Amino acid sequence: MAENLELLISFIGKDNIVDDILDREDGENTLRLLGQQVIETAQRDHDSMCEWPDMVEQGQDIARQDTTAKSEPWEGASNYKDPVILEAAITFGDRATTELLRGRNLFKVDIVGKDATGAKKAASERVAEFMNWQINHQMEDWRGVHRRLLYQLPAIGTVFKRTFFDPIDNINKSELIHYPNFAVNQATVSLKESPFTIYMDIDKNGTFVRQASGMWSEDVEIYSEGANGDEGSNAEEDVDFAYDNDERFLQQDCFYDLDEDGYQEPYTVTVHGRSGKVVRIVARFDETSITVKTKEVAASFGVDAQPSVITTLEFGGNEIDGELIKIEPSTDITKYGFIHDPEGTYLDIGYYHLLSSITKSINSGANQLSDAGTLANLQGGYAAKGFRKRMGNMRVKPGSWVDTDIRAQDLQTGLLPHQFKEPSPTLLALVDQQKQRAKELTSNLDLKGLIAPNAPATTTLGLMQEAMVPMSAILQGIISAESAEFKKLFVLNSKFTDPDKYQKILDDSEADFEVDFDLENMDIQPTANADLSSKMQRIQQAESMMFKLQIIQMGGGDSRPIVENWFEAIGADNMIDKVWPSAEDMSKDQESRIQQQQAEAEKQNQLQAIEIDLAERKQNNEDRETQAKLRKTAAELDKLEAETIKVLEEAETEATKNLISKYTTKIQGARDAIVDQVGLMEQERKDRSEARENRREQREIKKETEVNINV
Predict the structure, then answer these.
(1) Does residue 125 sit in helix, strand or coil?
(2) Which of 127, 167, 324, 566 is packed most tightly, with the most Cβ within 10 A?
(3) Chain segment 657-681, per-residue pLDDT in tens
């Protein structure tokens, strides 16, 4: 058992193990049987899906806008073909492309588990930045390939993509597998557990490159030395698809027992279709995929001495002595589906399957209406015996009258027009009804009738989302498939990306390739949102959030993400940093400008404080002058009072004494009023002094707070 496990582990990471098999005594026979199995499996799987491609081909014929005139029921009869299928596929492709390929950033990375130190978040941002760069620059044709997929998918129903590392070009690739160049069993549940075959046309030059690079075995001769360079290509065979090419190659994810222990391991095998020769075998597993049950070795690793199930990766470089339990296969194929088949088969269905029957009925009705109108518009009929001879040959021009020698009665009775009816209004109504039913099936609803003028943003958004539920459900399935494809790309990066190149692209000294590309800590997801499949929906959602901006600010929330989302929704995301730069993205010039603005504001505050102090001091001086005048007036009153009393006392009359008492009372009242006024002014001066001190303290507190915020 240990030898078998060591053999399987030796297969891991090799570009081709055909030469290893040929070194065996029965190697050629093993490869012959393996090639035969691949071809037979592919044919069996292709037969199982025969109904699905038949519907696709019929749908293509119906949807194809052929301009050839029909010969039935007469030569040149109407041959109208309603474009409902094409319209539905194009409309869905437009909407899907707008959402799924929107913007430059297609990846986002969600953190798995807790992140107390923030290291996972930093790593996720680096991984997202690198993979977005990879999609937009290194894999230059990815967007174009994916765009074609989004337009083919609604019509066909199922499209596959292969995501793999190309050892010749030394980069990751993602290729579209065009119908009908694939075969999969309709009873399949999972692509990992079932065979999947790709038909490829590879000419002699392509074969030479693969063999010279070591990707294919050089010991397997496919084409003779005298074969031309186009040998094996579809152009040479004059066919449209690799499936119809006799010289095609079959690349199949399959299972075969190469170590002869009774368990079939997962491999990817490439076979020449005509000769059945195997040119390449690659293992579809790694160290983490092989699970064994051990006893002695498990105990040596501190595991219970009872038989334990352990992956071979846990043994490191130690010798393995145990019983193979299973091997978890991997696959580089991603299935993109449209609508699940109600019959439960593996391949999903599209508009070719859903609309072909109703489109045929629409075409038939429309052609009958057109032919009926043609017959009704073309005048003709039967002439009585001898009538034509009397008339002779003649042509009638519009707006002209023809003289004849025939009596009016004979002219009326000698001609019998054809009794063709006008196009049937009932048939026209039926055709219109069928077209409406077809549109309902395609989810291409007209939202104009649903949205009232000046409706609130939240109401409009709700109506739009409700109407788009069918399409959102389909988009959600596509986004899930994208997520599976992105995870495959993540795994390929973890195995084949150069760590130095990773750090160079990011220009980040903290970028650690081995730590960052750990799928256990991350979940790779597309940035697309299935609930927002149109720009109008994104704008409506952004505006509904903008209405709550003031409430969020009053509650102490961060309003920047809401404003950024609004800029992105209207397509002005490139203005975010210009209008509202973040602290992380500020340039030195921006920081200097902000510091200058802060210094100018501080200077203005200081000038304002000085002006207030000067005004208060001026007021205090004026108050002191007023108090001095009041005191002087009070002193003069005292002097006047004394002099008056002295003069009046010398008179020594009763009336004079009464007058002295009266004047004394009035002077005392004036003196008290002056004292009160002086006291009031003194209190106001003290209040202003205290207010000035409070303002000075508040400025100091504000200044300390701004310093702390900047830090």
Answers:
(1) helix
(2) 127
(3) 666 676 677 777 766 777 677 677 7
